[in-house]
Request: fold
Amino acid sequence: MQGTLVCAMTDGDESGDALELGAALSERLGLRLVLAHAVDGLQSAGTGESVTVKANRQGAERRLARLAEKHGVAHR
Reply:
């Protein structure tokens, strides 16, 4: 089977559970797994990224990387 499974992540503790389930399903079904993390803060067109928005984005990226490594999906 070909396709993609998108696993949405948040800052909540349940994200680890969602990733664990997503990883198992993608492996079992032979689907590519894409992890996505949404953070608060919108950037208006033509404006720079605020310090707060940048910090939130970078924190989300680090958390996503840690969870992906923990669940063995960082390199697939």
Observations:
- The two ends are 17 Å apart (CA to CA).
